[in-house]
Amino acid sequence: MLQLVGKDALAETDKITLETAKLLREDYLAQNAFTPYDKFCPFYKSVWMMRNIVHFNALANQAVEKAAGMDGQKITYSLIKHRLGDLFYRLVSQKFEDPAEGEEALVAKFKKLNEDLTAGFRALEDETR
Fold first, then answer.
1. Using H for helix, E for strand and C for coil, what is the string for 29-94?
2. What is the CATH topology of the domain spanning 11-127?
């Protein structure tokens, strides 16, 4: 179906769902045994990566749905990706964090990303009101 109508014909929430599925498939599930950061993945790293991906999905859907009912500028998936591109890049780059840095250091980075996602979406919603 998607190949027939194209991504542009999808609802904004469906675009977010597709991007989340892509994140899960390409950045969460795919592993490269030949790299030091990815040859094994400790449980805490898996949990925090998933937590941040799910958090992004929830915040993005919430922002799109809130803006749909308001008179302000509409929040679209392309606007999210454009304005929050640096956060999206950090989300994709989580897999490159090396467990050799230690659990405490990685958890701090993952928590910071989680907080930055919340702040980024809050700022985006404030801008579009």
1. HCCCCCCCCCCCCCHHHHHHHHHHHHHHHHHHHHHHHHHHCCCCCCCCHHHHHHHCHHHHHHHHHH
2. 1.10.1140
